[in-house]
Amino acid sequence: MTIDFDLILPDVGEYGNYQKLMVWFVFLPGMIPCGFHAYNQLFMATQPKFRCLIPDLDLADRNFTEEFIRNASIPFVMNKDGRWNFSSCSMYSRNYSVEEDLTVLLQASGNLSSSDIPTVPCQAGWKFQNNDQETTTVVTEWELVCDKDFYPTMALVLFGISGLIGNWIFGYIQDSMGRRPAFFIYLLIESIFAIATAFAPTFGIWLACRIGVGFTVPAIMGTPFVMAIELVGPSWRTHVALLANVVYSCTLCLLGVVVWLVRDWRQMSLATSLPFLAFFFYWWVLPESPRWLLSQNRLAEAEVEIRKMARINKRSLPAGYFNQFKTNVEESGDDMDSSRSQPTYGALDLVKTPNMARKTAIVTFIWFTVTSVYVGLSYYAPALGGNEYLNFLLAGVAELPTYFFLWPTMDRWGRRWTLCFSMILGGVACLATLSFQDDYVVMLVLYCVGKFGISSAFVVLPLMASELYPTVVRGIGISISGVAGMLGPIFIPLINYLGTESLMVLPLMIMGGLMVAGGLCALTLPETLHQHLPQTLEEGELFGKDFGYKQWLTCCPPRPNRREHGKDVAQRLAENSDVAKPLVSLTIPSSVTSAI
Fold it and tell me: Which CDD domains does the UniProt entry name for this protein (predicted)?
């Protein structure tokens, strides 16, 4: 038997001063490293325009213009998108050191390119055409172009794979060791590898450091988010979820400014890593989740945190407030000694019963869709044309209007319809790009609409998933769904690398189709608005068990009577002994029931 933290919250405050301090100054700032480290690699490995280096023409004491050098030494070739342009990886086989030949070239400067002259691969390296001398990337430093141009894409793929593995492992750490120690484990690993990135002497070591950073990136945001959701009352979850995503969008905007100001990739790596060492000071202020402590029957530790919460929220709890909880748990046969073994849970617990398995499969598919499209559109922003730093900044700014839409709809329409509408809207916008490939303005508008839709879904889904999964497997459930979601971003860089211009729309078609399908699947999930968080596997199985196709189109759920809802849950638990052994009822203090 575990204690439902939602029944205690009305006595200590569902969103009092304690929760506000933790959310605004601990949990929300704790999400910033994820945004920085998830996307700073795009700018560390950006590829500027380049051509073959011609030492005899590019010498500093020569006054040859860039146009002359290009015309004299670089052949015209057809790119993979079907357009003609100057080659980046080949040059004319000419002797540019002979003055007579240079004189002839100068006299014929208006018509130097010729298909009759043999070409060879670049012989002396490459000349990168940066907009300023301060811009350096791993591509320019280690010349990752031509036969090595796949290396940056490979780095993104391996970064995604490491995040997939790390998300799986850290989900178990979060649910077994606790939210607090898990956060500092992530932070330590991420800080070590992120700082080491700046001092990598070779591409191989740089890649190894990026894999180490990617190992922690998804998890280091998930833990503060879960802790924030678990700490507040049901009516404040939407508020906290929106705040978390506003902070994430602002983080992307801030990253755009940082990488624009710091153009050297080594300094950029330090600028996006060193400030986060300050989060180790959270060791003295970051609490363990009382909800997780209660789910582990560590009542003594939970009581300390809850009483501290009540004190800061200016609420008074009777001296024997927790005695009746302890008594009932002891009578139910639960082990009160934290030193003894506690039940362990794993991924199989999510699919042992039919309703939990169905909900897990749907949430996982939608998570795959949302993550793939969100990351895919973020990667696509620099390809829109213009300044890549400005494009990335605008991509972050485009997310901000979504929260004005979500703030009223999530608490009025419910989670299901908000998620459905967002995904279908974004999916239709992505599909429509097929008809407007050559119209930059229309493509930009559709891109923003797609970003709006997927950003909205990116807000609703983690909140809804955290409300569907029971406390005892919440971290595992979210991690598994996140792992499935990260499969998409692994393949998106490969599709972008291999595709031609016409094929570049194919990912948008695939993502649009997935979004429409995911939006329709969202309607089959039970509504979680105004519902208490399931604590045990038994409660998780019963939640939404009777939600059939007749309820799929229902919208705008009313606020239920909490007391009657609690009685209904207890009654259904008792009636469904085939799902799990029934729980012993708790004697809830009158102060709690009156608040409900």
Answer: MFS_SLC22
